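pasting for ref. prot 1 ->
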Amino acid sequence: MVDRISVRVDGVWPVLRDLQKLPADADRETRDVGYRLAVLLAGQVAANARVDSRQSALMASTVRPVAGREPSIVAGGGARVGRRGTPAFKILFGSEFGARTYKQFRPHLSGGSYWMWEAIMAARPEIDAEAGRGVDRLVRAFDRGM
């Protein structure tokens, strides 16, 4: 049973591979940049969830950043949400993708997204730009000898 969705931003691996050429101290800085980007992404996804629908709004409190070199977020899990205390994972997929058989959810989108993936794709240019700036700062700092 899947109880959460993890999201990773594409295109990060080549950058991380190149950053491995920097001194070992760069790892902490790389993780700081990755976490800052994850916080930015989690905030945008949670904001999109709050304005989408009641079910999506319940998921906003479960969206959180994950520490690491690459910007990652998680949502859902076993957290109890709503007035009935339903586990978030029981609402997550229906609120994000809809459903065909369960009438409490909106119609299934067949590959579309109601709130999470839409927010991620909308945030991608900003995340890419900020990641580039973070990597540039990191490389300059270690090029100067920090």
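and prot 2 ->
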Amino acid sequence: MNNKKKFALIAALSLGLVMTACQNNTSKDNPSNEPSVTQSSKKEDKSSTSKEDNKSNKDKDEKEGEKKTEVSLSDWEGEWNDMGGYLDKKEIQPAFKTLAENEKIDENGAKENYLKKRHCDFGGLRIKGDEVEFLNDFPDKNPELKGKGVYKFVGKQEVEHGGYKMEWDIFEAKNEDAPYKYLLMMPIHGEESLTHFHMRYGDDKDKLLQEEGWYPTFVKPSTTDQQIIDEITE
């Protein structure tokens, strides 16, 4: 074989090796570009869906939280007697002697303090929906209507009294002729002994919240004298 043929054969073999190497390198550089892109897209879709689910759950939790904090005046719906209407009854008077002994003060002072604590300017309530009727006596005694108002819930306020934290639900009158602009209500409690709730009323919300020692109290018409006595002497 002459030199020209040898050089031609070597050149051909060299070119073939180069082409093969180029093809292999191309395959390694992008062996599976398409599947890789698809996998990335799936991750992005999954991440996007997860974010949307989290946002949806957060919105749901916020709405449920709003429902839990929302209060309706209908929670107190029914007829209620002012506790003060019982306190001058003959049957109740022995309770003030016990109260005086417990507080280590004289009986007259004990009764005076307690009457001041429970003082109320009306004798009973009728609550239906968001409307309150203020009565001059117990609802079952054919009372006169002293006034009425439609009230909306406007918020809660936590206060401290005697080392304890209490929370008032605040309602504001929607009608201008309501006898009181604001009502402060505590939840109904004491079902195991005396079902009752405390309420404050007036036109100055801040003053009502800051008031010390004034808790008008309302009880069910079925309340007995003994339940009132137990409440005074507890």
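Strands lie at 78-82, 124-128, 131-135, 145-161, 164-173, 182-185, 196-202, 217-219.
The mean pLDDT is 81.
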